[in-house]
Amino acid sequence: MSDVDLIADLYVFRTVDRTAIAALVAMAPPQTFAAESVIFRQGEPADRALLVVEGRLEATVEAGGRARRVGEIGPGEIVGEQAIFHPHGPRNAGVAALQASRCLVITPKLMEDGADNDALLAIETYLLGSLARRIRSTNRTMLQAWKEAAPKGPAATVAEAMPTTTSLLDSLRRLFGG
Amino acid sequence: MLPEETRMQAMRLAKQYPYPGASIDGIMQLLDAGYRMEFQHSQPICTEGEPAACMYVLTYGKVSVIKRDFSGQTRRVTTLHSPSLFGHMSMVDGSPRSATCVSEGIATVVVIDRDNYQRLVSENTAVGRTLRRMLLSSMADQLSRGNQRLRELTGGAGAGTQPRTDVTQDELTDISSELEGWRSAPQDDDASTEGYTIKDTDGPIGD
Lengths: 178, 207
Hints:
The complex is a heterodimer. Chain A is of the alpha+beta class. Chain A contains 7 helices and 8 strands. In chain A, the strands form 2 sheets. Chain A has a 4-stranded antiparallel sheet. A 4-stranded antiparallel sheet of chain A has the order 2-7-4-5, with no helix packed on it. In chain A, strand 4 and strand 5 form a beta hairpin. In chain A, helix 5 packs antiparallel against helix 7. Chain A is elongated. By secondary structure, chain B is an alpha+beta fold. Chain B has a single domain, classed as Jelly Rolls, CATH 2.60.120.10. Chain B is 38% helix and 23% strand. Chain B starts with a helix and ends in a 28-residue tail after the last helix. The C terminus of chain B is likely disordered. At the A-B interface, strand 4, helix 3, helix 4, helix 5 and helix 7 of A face helix 3, helix 5 and helix 6 of B.
């Protein structure tokens, strides 16, 4: 299958005309990453995001000398979008290819040069939903950590229902690493 | 709003919410797409828990953000300064208002109602692109700051970062507020447009 065929099959681009996808591919031909290759290193300046066209990537966060796997990114998903809106900031996570993968490389320059492209509009729409879900999910997880750490049983006062610092930190570490 | 005033607001918003392809004209069109409302001191603008019918661009004045914390107590989490976007998370995902906003002194907002939001956000036009990219810039910043503060709390912020030995519910409420976009906007001097060129076809104000 051609890159245009592969991209046109992705859910993100379900409403996008093939002409727009072909124009996007012409502006930013997808890149191939070999299996097990390191694509982004945590802490390095961010300059591009990737939309997985084919294959599978893995994101890891390193802390205290150990790496923790935080997610897999498959076809139609985007990783590293901070680079588009806040370029030059440090990468929050490392990303490697779990298998040979083909990805669209999205840079701030592409967003400027292809501003009118419908495929980029589709990417922006996808990102709005994806960021909102992640923000809400992180907030829910924090609330869950708070509840898990609170003393069980009826509490006479609000103060008695407060989680202790240690138990709350333990819950947060389980959920967010560290 | 007078065109010069709109242009001034657009330039300040472009600094506050940098995005690729930023255009002053696009932001001016966005401000013109909404309608203007003025709130007197202590007047509620939106209420926590209620369904949302619009998003706001604070163009003048200050707004207090009041929110229930993790134990259900109500407290002021921040003050928004103009120019700021607020109330947009509810537009993006249809969730109820996550905080109550009250004007501090006289405050002026541009209201973008749901119908207008839904039309603009799906349009392949300069104003549609401006809305999407300003929202994405704001939300990417929200998520990044919130996650960074969580990592600092849990000792997962990377080499050289000391894990915290204590955490309070106030800090968690602050992080939660930051994730939802309730944070005090940095003043213009601190805003950065690094990495982007802002298109201002008509030249700067005062020329």
